[in-house]
Amino acid sequence: MKLAQAAGHWALVTGASSGIGREFAVQLAQKGMHVVLVARRKDRLDALAAELRQKSGVRIEVVAADLTEKGMVEQIKRQLDQAGICVRVLCNNAAFGRWGRFEQTEPELYRQMIELNTTVVMSMCHAFMEDLASHPTSLVINVSSAASYQPVPYMAVYAASKAFLQSFSQALHGEWKERGILVQTLVPGPTESEFDTTARAYDSALTERGTPYEMVHASLSKLDSGLPVIGAAKGIWKQRMFAGLFPPKMIIREVAKMFMPPK
């Protein structure tokens, strides 16, 4: 997959109103792609759309939607079909998490988290597969997390949802590569974004933050490699080795130390 060949075609980015999603929209537009922006906050999407049209001269479609609503993915697909938009790049970035003790968050919020972080990603891939397969080459980027590599006490549901995404995305890579569809799993590190605020993050062992630009650049600059997983987190190989070699009791204890809420 070469983005230069996709100039003039359509990309769809979820969670495009801020952070990594917004940066994906910016960088894809800079490559000459038209972009469908999907998120809940229409005012932010409209502002970004105006900026991208002015700076990059590409077409922008704004879809203000809550992806966790029943039938929303199918509704978006119908809307784009009616507009004559055929997607060549699909970026599943929308997600959220929650820090803290498991029992202190209501089950309904966890249900929404699982829906957005897992079911919506699966549904988007399923809904747009025919679009993607209609091109000689196409691309899916599923944004995961370093939390996917091991259980994370005090982020239990979020880490589990990203473990699902990580496994699903890599399996789909194996299935779809013969169709000319590259499915890339992007594993960003902690990033300067609204994620921490939404997740109600507190002081922890995670002190360094990368920029959205760095995370997106890591993804798009390595498309030629065709790799199923791109790690943009520092020291991720150490994390994978730790999770794979050491006993679960030790892994759980050490990770819990990093995320334990302040007393």
Tell me the quaternary state. Answer: single chain
- Kindly provide the radius of gyration, computed on alpha-carbon positions and rounded to a whole number of angstroms: 18 Å
Q: What spatial order of strands do you see in the largest sheet?
A: 3-2-1-4-5-6-7
Low-confidence region ranges? none
The CATH architecture designation is 3-Layer(aba) Sandwich
Instruction: Classify the fold: give the CATH topology.
Output: Rossmann fold
How many domains make up the 3D coordinates? Answer: 1
SSE topology string: EHEHEHEHEHEHHEHH
3D shape: globular
Briefly, what CATH class? Alpha Beta
Fraction of residues in helix? 40-55%
Number of strands: 7
Strand content: 15-25%
Give the key terms.
alpha/beta; Rossmann fold; 7-stranded parallel sheet
Quick synopsis:
With 263 residues, the protein is of the alpha/beta class. Helices cover 46% and strands 15% of the residues.
